[in-house]
Recover the amino acids of this structure.
């Protein structure tokens, strides 16, 4: 800000007197405002424009002197207007990174996060007394580095007492305002989903605030079509918000990571890897520990052992999922949990459908890129919701015929199989056509992958354990699903399909009222030494067991399924066993 009493060339300037409730979103660069001095330092005065809008008027911009409580007129400027000039920044240290040259302090103020480079000696930590979360005042020159702004530090002081408290309160008010999610209208009229909007808005607010606080976000999602339809839109939205709030061009790479999970729950292997990387990033790059965002996963008791591992660290957990939940087991460990079953709904509301709305709440400008995604999510997870017709119609209006939407889902599943634990960011973006840069390549890629997947699926539809190659497409779940669908079409009757291998079984059911998570829990208790674990939806899931106990586990599983009730309109049950590895 600059202090000024001079009228502009057009006569008397307009000077705005802000209401006390006004925020930084209500002010505009180049405009003049009434201000009140709230602090005096050697190099200028700190002023308040409202309860949550404050700034510094440098001594070079005014004559005379001011005292606390004095009124003056200021003109609003930005860092971008002061390239090559000395500025003063008050904020919170959110990251400290030691390079081979300077120490980089990332300082967050009301407008965003800016890197401040301080040099003591090559590779030597400057200002070693400064720690993450300290409130500081930085004075330095604004320079451009890697097409972004950076402050070359002349001095850096840790604020204490009332000064620190004032800055902290100012930042808290600004963060609260900037973290608010956008108010969006649902893509289709569907009360079952719309009733979940308040909880989704709270998640959006927590994620936006996490970005403002420069805490990394680590996403774990189920490695299937719906999981990708959930995670890719959220990734795009959060990266847009990171770019807006952080001057460091590398911020979105450091602050957001997306990784698939092969199992329908958070495995110990995954949590151990995630925790190890988080601690390494904290030690090497001075980052805060991350927030864990579980998408299309994370709602069941099988996730709890992994959550218990994270409970020893400052790692918040947020879950958006549509698998049948165990809220009493999960919710003591999570900060937020959104699941349609908690609203007396079910898996027909897929995680991809929820997360498209979540992404729009974070960054609504990406809406045009996402209109086809809920339809792909529903087709991928075989949603039978009435709203599927509306989602397909919405996608068709964007040029996506229903057969092509099915191909997109097929291509996503195919790539998920081969990517294994790799996020495959650019490839998956091209397949889903979100954050991609070539419509033609998207079409060609989907057609190629869908045709390849279909050819391989037809080849391995019989006796796959004894006659199919291992570790190739289709995966056990895909094979079992294909066989199951064919038997449903052939018989027109209720069907349960069990596809099993040496130490696992994949379960599919139509027309039978199963509760697979409950069955898994009972089998674990009843089959001593079976080591049974797993879960999923009520009628779709997978289990693992000790190889030597396979027959005992499967026999007990079949007995439980034989006792299951049919849907009212169906009259008989077929139990099919298809070997699978």
């Amino acid at each position: 800000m600059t202090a000024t009493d001079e009228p502009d060339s057009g006569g008397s300037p307009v000077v705005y007197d802000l209401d006390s409730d006004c925020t930084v979103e209500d002010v505009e660069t180049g405009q003049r405002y009434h201000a009140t001095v709230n602090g005096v330092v050697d190099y200028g005065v700190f002023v308040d424009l409202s309860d949550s809008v404050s700034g510094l008027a440098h001594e070079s911009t005014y004559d005379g002197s001011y005292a606390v409580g004095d009124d003056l007129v200021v003109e609003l400027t930005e860092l971008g207007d002061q390239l090559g000039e000395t500025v003063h920044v008050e904020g919170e240290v959110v990251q400290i990174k030691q390079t081979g040259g300077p120490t980089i302090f990332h300082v967050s103020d009301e407008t965003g996060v800016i890197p401040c480079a301080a040099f003591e000696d090559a590779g030597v930590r400057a200002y070693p007394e400064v720690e993450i979360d300290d409130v500081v005042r930085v004075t330095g020159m604004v320079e451009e580095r890697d097409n972004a702004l950076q402050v070359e530090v002349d001095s850096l002081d840790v604020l204490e007492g009332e000064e620190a408290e004032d800055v902290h309160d100012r930042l808290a008010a600004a963060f609260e305002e900037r973290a608010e999610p956008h108010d969006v209208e649902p893509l289709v009229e569907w009360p079952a989903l719309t009733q979940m909007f308040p909880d989704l808005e709270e998640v959006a607010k927590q994620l936006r605030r996490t970005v403002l606080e420069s805490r990394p976000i680590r996403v774990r999602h189920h490695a299937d079509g719906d999981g990708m339809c959930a995670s890719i839109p959220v990734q795009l939205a959060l990266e847009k918000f990171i770019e807006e709030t952080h001057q460091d061009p590398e911020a979105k790479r450091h602050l957001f990571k997306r990784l698939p999970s092969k199992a329908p729950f958070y495995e110990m292997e995954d949590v151990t890897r995630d925790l190890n990387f988080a601690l390494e990033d904290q030690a090497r790059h001075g980052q805060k520990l991350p927030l864990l965002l579980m998408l299309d996963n994370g709602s069941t008791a099988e996730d709890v052992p992994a959550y218990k591992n994270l409970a020893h660290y400052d790692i918040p957990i947020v879950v958006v999922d549509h698998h049948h939940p165990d809220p009493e087991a999960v919710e003591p460990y999570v900060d937020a949990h959104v699941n349609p079953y908690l609203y007396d709904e079910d898996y027909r509301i897929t995680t991809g459908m929820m997360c498209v709305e979540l992404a729009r709440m974070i960054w609504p400008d990406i809406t045009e890129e996402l209109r086809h995604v809920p339809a792909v999510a529903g087709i991928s997870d075989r949603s039978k919701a009435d709203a599927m017709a509306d989602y397909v119609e919405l996608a068709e209006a964007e040029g996506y015929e229903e057969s092509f939407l099915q191909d997109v889902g097929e291509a996503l599943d195919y790539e998920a199989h081969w990517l294994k634990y790799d996020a495959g960011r650019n490839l998956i973006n091209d397949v889903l056509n979100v954050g991609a840069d070539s419509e033609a390549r998207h079409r060609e890629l989907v057609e190629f992958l869908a045709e390849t997947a279909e050819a391989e699926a037809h080849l391995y539809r019989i006796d796959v354990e004894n006659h199919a190659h291992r570790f190739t497409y289709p995966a056990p779940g895909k094979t079992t699903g294909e066989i199951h669908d064919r038997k449903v079409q052939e018989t027109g009757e209720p069907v349960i399909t069990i596809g099993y291998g040496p130490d696992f079984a994949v379960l599919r059911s139509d027309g039978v009222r199963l509760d697979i998570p409950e069955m898994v829990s009972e089998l674990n208790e009843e089959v001593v030494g079976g080591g049974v674990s797993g879960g999923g939806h009520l009628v779709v899931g997978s289990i693992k067991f000790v190889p030597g106990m396979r027959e005992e586990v499967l026999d007990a599983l079949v007995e439980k399924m034989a006792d299951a009730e049919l849907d009212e309109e169906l009259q008989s049950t077929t139990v099919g066993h298809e070997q699978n590895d």
About this structure: The longest strand covers residues 86-98.
